[in-house]
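Hey, quick one: can you model this chain's 3D structure?
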Amino acid sequence: MRLFFALWPDEHVREALEGWSLRAQAACGGRAIPADKLHLTLIFVGGFERSRMAGLEAAADTVCGAPFDLTLDTLGYWRHNRIVWAGASRCPPALATLAGSLRAALAALGLPGDDRAYAPHMTLVRNAERKPPANTVAPQPWPAREFVLVESAPVSGGVRYDVLRRWPLTAHSL
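Sure thing. Here's the predicted structure for all 174 residues.
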């Protein structure tokens, strides 16, 4: 299994970000990310044995996180891997705390982590031929009220994302 923890947009946010993705593709070329795959990764788990899922879910059960509002308001381009992405000019403290708590929970399981500061971003276009024009997006609010565990499953012609479990964000231990 290839797994990751993410924020999964609700229908309203997903529709708005699908528009961003399609407009970015029109301006930059490449392949727009389909609406059903738009997400914001919190931490990538990677290859994982199904037999260890109970331990992974139990570790996520220990994560505390408060609900927060994220505002995506920036388009960017990574030339080295030709990705157009949407990001937030300000990372809410609760989002940074959530990502850090998940990192710590996975480290307690002996899973390797990433030591870089968390920088929220969402891939909109892959294989972009050029960077997007100057930032032309209207801020998109995203009320984050849960985080999810997602499996990236190979299928003919790509991958399918399956949400395996959801955890509500509350101010108390889960």
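One thing worth noting: Residues 60 and 171 are 15 Å apart (CA to CA).
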